[in-house]
Amino acid sequence: MAEDRAGGAEPGNLHSAYRAGRDDERARLAKAPVDTRDRRWRDVYERGRRDERARRRGAPLLTLLLVLVAAIGGAFIYLAVREGSFARGGQVVDRGLGQAAQQASPAIGSAGQSLENAGRSLKQSASGLGQS
User: 30-69, pLDDT tens digit by residue?
Assistant: First the structure.
């Protein structure tokens, strides 16, 4: 039966070997200066942090997109709860988007016209410089 455990070692011998190894390690640590141990741990810790930071650089644009999608989802859920159903909450969103589109249409049209006028004036200026 003792042959089945750890290649034939007796349980009492395993325990004493374990204790001897533990005592040796404690003695070795007691001899090492405390500041050396602390410094080694700090160095190892900082190296691990740097490695992990380099490994997990992240994608800031993807994170921003995820936060925006989560915020929009939260707003939809809030509207659904406030209106009593997702259908009525969707109607509120549709009305708001429709009003925003109606208000933005004239501004977009005038911005487009302003860009066309600016382009024409640049062409005229450029052709005037080329002729002189």
Answer: 776 666 667 778 888 888 888 888 777 778 899 999 999 9
Q: How far is CA 90 from the centre of its chain?
A: 30
d(CA 129, CA 132): 6
57 three-class SS = coil
Share in percent of the chain as helix, strand, coil (round to 5): 90, 0, 10
Asked if residue 28 lies in contact with residue 19, where contact means CB atoms within 8 angstroms, the answer is no
Question: Mapping DSSP to helix (H, G, I), strand (E, B) and coil, where does residue 32 land?
Answer: coil
pTM: 0.39
- Calculate the CA 2 to chain-centre distance: 55
Question: Tokens 């969103």 correspond to what residue?
Answer: 93
Beta strands in the chain (DSSP E): none
Six-digit token string for 9 = 């070692």
pLDDT in tens, 76-102: 899 888 888 888 888 888 888 888 888
